[in-house]
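D-isomer specific 2-hydroxyacid dehydrogenase, NAD-binding: structure, please.
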Amino acid sequence: MKILFCGEGFPEARKQLAALLPDDEILAFPPDQIGSHIADADIVVPTVNRVDEALMKKGHFAFIQQFGVGLEGVDIEAATRNGIRVARIPSEESGNAASVAEHAILFMLMLSRNWNRLARAREENKPLPWGSPEGVALRGKTVCIVGLGGIGRELARRLAGFQVRIVTADDHADRTVPGIEIARRYTLAELPAAVAGADYVVLSLNYTPDRYHLIGKAEIAAMKRGVYLINVARGGLLDEHALLTALKSGQVAGAGLDVFWEEPVDPNHPIFKENVIATPHTGGVTDVSYEGISRAFAENVKRYAAGEKPRYLANDPTTTRRRVP
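Here you go.
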């Protein structure tokens, strides 16, 4: 079968998949060339690109398999209408969630210890006075985890060792993390109350259209002054204009961003003049997550090739396209 990546990213992923699926062909083209090659595809991998109904009708593929979790670029309703199954790889099972959780803690520590100020001092060759700048320790602080799915649970497990107070905001208010004390659980409808006393707010929930700018001007205003805001989920959850204003005013002391309102993000955006630590959507790009995702991906491809229903489906069409041999 021909497996088409919508973009030329994820080279290591394609290398691992080629080893796991030696009888299949792994293809990758720039996004502007996908339409010209889609007719050859048996399986489409959206990565971070858009797969809409127009593209679906150009091809004969009956399966969209994401290399990871996010499906915000896929028109799932259109896929269902066209008899195309859509699947993701759960983050907790693949090791992706653990990797992203570590990345969130990296942001927390770098912001707390004034990484940007230290880096500027080194670059400008201007040593800071001995004992400066004063850092912030995580111990005793309150962390609000927004979204207690795979990433949120892995983050809670890791934060417990830092002796922080954990509160959560989730669409399932009864979610817990076995063995981890959660001081208080809120629903997403109670978000302003959930973030009000937090020293750190970490976004780790799935993105859906109704969660666009879940964190905006009102929610940031509800946070305590000097909060650190971290997004390792999806860029659409956070209003970048509200964040920029809050960074300039000091309402938000610093932000850690692994995802953005557009990707790739403009490196000259004014938000990067503030106390922001940014990485290019690499929170889950580790040896552990790539190995786990590749293994689950290959298993699903084999199920599909054998005529079995793939695992981790995001939809389940009543009738499906006939797979072209």
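Notes: The chain is about 35% helix and 15% strand.
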